[in-house]
Amino acid sequence: MIKILFVCHGNICRSVMAQFMLEDLLKKEGLEKDFVVDSAATTSEEIGNDMYYAAKDILTKHGIPYGHHCARKISAKDIDDFDEIICMDQENLLSLYRQFGRLPKIKKLLGNQDVDDPWWTRDFEKTYVDIDEGLHNIVRDINKYTKIK
Q: Which end of the chain is more exposed for a tag (fewer CB within 10 A), N or C?
């Protein structure tokens, strides 16, 4: 079982979008039983809140199913429990490093590129496209690995 945690600032837009988008991709690939996917925030600002309405709208537009969400902050237990901690931008990365150290399992979804926060840019479509690119890279790498086994 591979456990992946997506992390962004508030856990109401990017990280939760990535969570539901990856769950959908894994289901389409027949890999959903091999993974646990979740999301969390680096801050406490949105704790307890549902996914932002515009994030829901963009997922609906692209046919991605989602359920109720309750924003939460990443914990030390998450660092221990998850195999991959994937954040959205440099600010998230530095925040995670400050909280938990420079662990190899902590990385950005798009490598050197940031996934811009649509809370500020209001461009949820661009955020969707960026997340989709990063997730397809993850699934492609997973498929390469599983075909080698």
A: C
